[in-house]
Write a structure and sequence with these properties.
By secondary structure, this protein is α+β, with helices and mostly antiparallel strands. The chain folds into two domains: 221 residues, Aminohydrolase, N-terminal nucleophile (Ntn) domain (Glutamine Phosphoribosylpyrophosphate, subunit 1, domain 1, 4-Layer Sandwich), CATH 3.60.20.10; 61 residues, Alpha-Beta Plaits, CATH 3.30.70. It contains six helices and 14 strands. It has a seven-stranded mixed β-sheet with strand order 7-2-8-1-13-12-14, covered by helices on one side. The chain has a four-stranded antiparallel β-sheet with strand order 4-5-3-6, with helices on one face. Strands 9-10-11 form a three-stranded antiparallel β-sheet, with no helix packed on it. A hairpin with a 2-residue loop joins strand 4 and strand 5. Helix 5 crosses helix 6. It is globular.
């Protein structure tokens, strides 16, 4: 079943409330997925300070001594956020060298990824999400159907720099794509079909970047008739989403924000959200 939410803030005056608003949206979807949850937060000046690389890590206890860098390490629930005055790629390489067994939840400047096993309300409290700031956030509540309930099975999947993906549904051809990606040398952290979609997109964005094209948001059609995705790019205000006619999501916007949720109730607490749009429609109020 699962629940997905996304919020892009157009008004800088709302940036200090990003975490508060995202917490309400995510917890409202708790009954759609109570075994695990995750968020990606863009633009928090403490979690991902400007000019510093950021890596989100689980399943290890990282220290600056082990990494050999001047690294700031903070813990949020079971997730550690590492930042340093180096590129995110350089910091990521240092983490992988020091902790080959680490689960990398995400990396890139201006983005922090937190996730874990448990009810969304318990996790958001542990993360301190309500105090987060920023200009954009994406979240997922999971009800596992085809892979283990572990941190590696949680969304978002953020496998490319500043990229992340949350997904509700099932990719019919994930096994085929996984085999093709593995043959190309791509490694996986889980058996989750969403990770296949995320790594497929990351590979495609990498190819476009190498060709000199501007990377934009993209979504792979799951070809099942019952899937939807929310895939923000690092470029502000560019969003891409797919949803099925049988199980629609809601996308709405005002002058202050653009938001998406599996159900309208996830958006009802946002400033200026007063009337629910028709299911699956895009409204402007």
């Amino acid at each position: 079943m699962c629940g997905i939410v996304g919020l892009h803030l157009r008004t800088p005056e709302l940036y200090p409330r990003l975490g508060e608003l995202l917490t309400g949206m995510l917890c409202e979807m708790g009954d759609r997925g109570s075994d695990s949850a995750g968020v990606a937060v863009y633009g928090d000046p403490i979690w991902s300070p400007p000019g510093r690389g950021c890596v989100s890590v689980l399943e290890v206890d990282p220290t600056a001594d082990d990494l050999g860098l001047d690294v700031s390490v903070t813990r949020h629930g079971d997730t550690y956020l590492l930042t340093a005055e180096v590129s995110s790629e350089m910091l990521l390489d240092a983490v992988k060298a020091a902790y080959p067994q680490a689960l990398i939840a995400g990396f890139g400047s201006d983005m922090a990824v937190l996730k874990g096993v448990g009810h969304p309300r318990t996790l958001t409290d542990a993360w301190g999400l309500a105090k987060a700031q920023g200009w954009q956030g994406v979240g997922h509540t999971r009800m596992a159907t085809e892979s283990a309930v572990t941190p590696a099975g949680c969304h978002p999947y953020a496998v490319g720099p500043e990229q992340c993906m949350v997904h509700n549904g099932s990719f019919a051809n994930h096994a085929t794509i996984r085999r093709e990606l593995r043959a190309a040398g791509v490694q996986f952290d889980s058996e989750n079909d969403t990770e296949v979609g995320a790594r497929f997109i990351a590979e495609a964005v990498g190819r476009w970047s190498r060709r000199g094209s501007r990377a934009q948001g993209t979504v792979c059609d799951a070809s099942t008739g019952s899937t939807r995705c929310w895939c923000p790019t690092a470029t502000r205000s560019r969003w891409c989403a797919t949803r099925s006619r049988a199980n629609p999501a809601v996308i709405a916007e005002t002058d202050d924000w653009v938001a998406m949720g599996s159900e309208y109730r996830a958006l009802a607490g946002l400033p200026g959200a007063s009337r629910p749009p028709r299911s699956g429609s895009r409204s402007r109020r």
